[in-house]
Design brief:
CNF1/YfiH-like putative cysteine hydrolases; 270 residues; globular; 8 helices; alpha+beta; 7-stranded mixed sheet
Length: 270
């Protein structure tokens, strides 16, 4: 039986304590993070405490008897129907949309943004792995459009953007920032200026910077993309936790250069 619990560590930094709109949930296997905006849906952003346990086991922490759906992630904008991803070998892709009730959809990452989407009217859900390539390829609008084809309406969608690398820890070249910005800005806007206005892009003025580097907050870029896709700020929640800055909580490729991930999942109601 899962229940809300106090944060799981004795020592926290300021960012860890500032979790308005998010709740730690304890269960028999450990704890995971939930977004209050999606509280009517069984879902979770899992931590490194669950290392070694895949979606088949993690699904039981969310709901008994659900089917498990995942992909072989390739940093793409490809979104699949859940029934296309039901067994090994897992199909390639980075997003899933439910097409039946009782499906649990899973994505993993170690700095990229895990994004869970829920239709509060129909119970349908989506899950996306949104790194810079996925955001540049417009994976989130693609997931929204897939939900719409099944009957969803944008005004009914709720979105949780989970723990990911923050801008201060993510250095990119200008061409990467421009690819992301072009996919996130409104028509006619300057890509770099659009991201800067959203706080998602800043020049890297660190002493060891080559001079052509920027700091990209992929979480804020994805948030901007969703706003420009027609969702309102009241439909979106962005987790303040940074995977790089929280070594007790999360694996991070940027920090450790080790291939290890944490999973995020959501269960469809309809």
């Amino acid at each position: 039986m899962a229940e809300a619990v106090d944060p799981p560590f004795d020592r926290f930094d300021q960012g860890f304590n500032a979790l308005d709109g998010w709740t730690w949930v304890g269960t028999y296997g450990g704890y995971f993070l939930q977004c209050d905006r999606l509280s009517e849906f069984e879902h979770g952003f899992f931590t490194r405490q669950w290392s070694g346990r895949g979606p088949q086991e993690l699904a039981a922490a969310l709901s008994a008897g659900v089917s498990v759906h995942r992909t072989r992630q390739i940093h793409s904008p490809l979104v699949l129907a859940a029934t296309e991803a039901i067994a090994e070998p897992w199909p390639e892709g980075d997003g899933l949309v439910s097409d039946a009730a009782g499906q649990s959809l899973w994505v993993c990452g170690a700095d990229c943004t895990p994004v869970l989407i829920a239709d509060r009217a129909r119970g349908s859900v989506a899950a996306c792995h949104a790194g810079w390539r996925g955001v540049a390829g417009r994976i989130l609008p693609a997931a929204i459009e897939a939900l719409e084809r099944s009957g969803s309406q944008r005004r009914d969608l709720l979105v949780a953007l989970g723990p990911a690398v923050r801008g201060e820890a993510y250095q990119v070249q200008l061409d990467v920032a421009l690819q992301v910005g072009k996919a996130c800005c409104a028509p006619g806007e300057d890509p770099a200026q659009s991201l800067m206005a959203a706080g998602a892009l800043k020049p890297d003025d660190s002493p060891d910077s080559p001079g052509d580097r920027y700091r990209l907050d992929i979480r804020l870029a994805a948030h901007t993309q969703l706003l420009n896709a027609g969702l309102g700020p009241e439909q979106l929640s962005l987790c303040p936790l940074c995977t790089v800055a929280e070594p007790m909580l999360f694996h991070s490729w940027r920090r450790d250069q080790v291939k290890a991930v944490q999973w995020s999942g959501i269960v469809a109601q309809g």
